[in-house]
Structure prediction request, 651 residues.
Amino acid sequence: MKKFIISMLSIVLGLIVGGVILKLSGISPLEAYQVMWEGAFSQPNYISYIIIRSTPLILTGLSVAFAFRTGLFNIGAEGQFIIGAMTAAYFGFVLNLNPWIQIPLVMLMATLAAAFYGGLSGFLKARFGVHEVLSTIMLNWIALYLSNHVIFIEGFRRPSMETTEFINPSTSITILEDWKISDMGLEWLSRHEFWQSFMRPPVNAGIFIALLAVVIVWIILNKTTFGFKLKAVGFSPLASEYAGINTRIKMTQSMMISGALAGLAGATHVMGVSKNIAVLAAHEGYGFDGIAVALIGSNHPVGVLFSGFFLGALKYSGQKIQSSLEAPSEVIGIMIGAIIFFIAIPSIFNFVLKSWRKNP
Amino acid sequence: MSTIQIIFLFSTTLMYSTPLIFTALGGVMSEKSGVINIGLEGMMTFGAFAASWAAITYSNPWLGFIVGGVAGMLLALLHAIASIKFKANQVVSGMAINFLGLGLAIFFCRIFFEGASMTPPLDLETKIPQIFGQYATVYVAFFLTALIWFIFNKSSLGLRLISSGEHPKGAVAAGIKVNRYKYFGVLSSGFLAGLGGASLSIAIVSNFRPTLISGQGFIALAAMIFGKWNPIGTLFACLFFGFSQALVVFIGGFETQIISSQLLATLPYILTLIILVSFMKKTTAPSALGQ
Prediction:
C-alpha cells in the first residue's frame, strides 16, 4: 500500500515536472495535458491503440519485475524481446498449420528461444560470476545483429526490402482480421459506430495473453514454494544456500522465466501487430521501457499491469502534442525519468508525510 | 599485414575507444566513492547534445566540449543528491537519469533546432581539431587516465575518496567528510561522461542524433567492471573494446566477404562475453558500493 502511494505521488510529481519543462519552453502545460487527455480517451480507436501499445510493455515490465523480485536486474528484456519476435516471425512464416495448433506452437517456440536466451545470462552469473547487467547488455546487441542477419536469409527476406515476408495468416492473433474487411463485417461495423472505431486498429489477443501472464506470475511468486525459493535467493543468497536451496539453478531458472516473458512480448507484437520484422539500426526500447514499467509498478504483477497501461497511454498520447502543438513529444521521456527518480527516493515522501502529521 | 593496415587498425582503435575511456573513467570516480552510477548512458547523451549545441551556437569546439561536461555534471548532481542526501536506491535513480538524459537531449534539440531531433552538422572549424591524425580529445582521454591514476595512487584526495567507498564508517571516524568526497566522485563522474558524449558528437561524428550513444554508456560500465575499477585497467578494457570495433571495420573492408556484416558486428560483444567468462572469477568492487 505504501509503495502504491509512493508510485502515485511520484506520478503526480512527474507530471508537474513535465509541466514545468513545457512552461519553460513556452508551451502551455494545461493545453498540452488537455491535448494528451483527449488524444488518449476521446475516441474508441484511441483506447484500442493504447491497449495495443501497452501489451508488450506489460509483458516486458513483468519480465523485468520478475527478475527484480528474485534479486536480478534484467536489462536484457530488450534482446529477449528481439529473439522472441525473430523466432515468431520465422516460424510464423515457415510453418502453416491449423491456427489452433499453429498459434500456440509458434508462441511456444518464441517463448522457449527467449527463455534460453535469458537463461544464458543467469547461467553465466551462476557458473562464471559474470554480472547479469553486463551479460545482458552484450546479449542485447548480439540479439539485434543476429536478428538483422536472419532477416537477410534468402527466401525469408522480402525481395529487395529490409524486412521479412509476412507471417502466414494462420499465425495471426489479430481479432476478426478477415471479418473486418469482409462485406458482412463492413456492413455490421457501419451500423455500430463505437465498434467501427474500436476495431479500426489491429486489435489483437495479445492483451489476454498479457493478462494471463500477470496471473501466472502472481501465482508463481505468491502461491508456490518454487516462487518462494526464487524470492529467497534474491533476498539472501547465502541464507538460501544454507537452507539447502541450489542458488545457481534458481538464478538460471529465474532468468529463464524473465526471458520467456520478454520473448512472449516480442511474439505477440509480431503475431498481432507488425506481422514481420525489419532491420534495426538501434534498439526500439521495449525492454528499457519494461524497466520503467516494473519500477513504477513497484515490481508487483498487478502494479505492472496498471503501470503498463499508464506508460502505454502516456507514450501514445504524447505523440499528439507533437502534431497539434508542435511541442516535443520527448517531454514524455522526461516525465518517465522524473517519475522513476522520485520512486528512487521514497524518503522525501516520508519527510512530507511526517510534516503533514505534525501540522494537519 | 601492411604498415598502412596496421596504422589503420591502430588509429581506428583509438577513435572508438575515446568516448568509452572518458565515460568509464567517470564510472570509476563515482563507484570508487561508493555510489553506483548506471546513469552514465543518460549523462553521456545529454552531454553529447549540449556539446554540439554550444559548439554550433558559439562556433567554438572547446567551449562545446566543456559545456558537454557541465551538462553531464548537472544530471550527476541530481543523482548525487538522491543517492547521498536522500539515500536513494542508486540503481533506480541511475535508471531515471538514463530516461531523463535522452528525453532532455531530444526535447531541447527540438526546441533549439526548429523541431528537428538531430542537430545540423558541424562545419570543420567548429569540430575538435586533429593532431597527428587523431582528434585532440584522444590525447585528453589519455591525459585524464594518467591524472586519475595519480589521484588514486599518489594523493590524499584519492585515498580519502577510496576510503569513503570502501569503509565509510571508518573514514568518518578518521575525520573525513565522507559525503563531500562522494559528491566529488559523482559530480566528476558526470563531467567525464559528458565529455565522453561530447567526444562523439563534436569529434568522431559531427552532429547529435537520438541514436548517437545507443548503449555506449553501458559498455563503458562494462569496461569499468572488466577493468576492476582501476583507471589503467579500465583504459585497457576500453582499448580492447575499441580494438574489436576497429576489427569489425577492418574485416568488413575486405573485398571477399567471409562472414555477413551483421554477424561480424556481434564480434565485440561476443569477445567481451568470452573475456568476462574467462576473467571474472573474482570481483573487486568497492566494499561499500551502493550503501
In short: Residues 99-128 of chain A form the longest helix (30 residues). The CA atoms of residues 79 and 186 of chain A lie 39 Å apart. The mean pLDDT of chain A is 92. The radius of gyration of chain A is 22 Å.
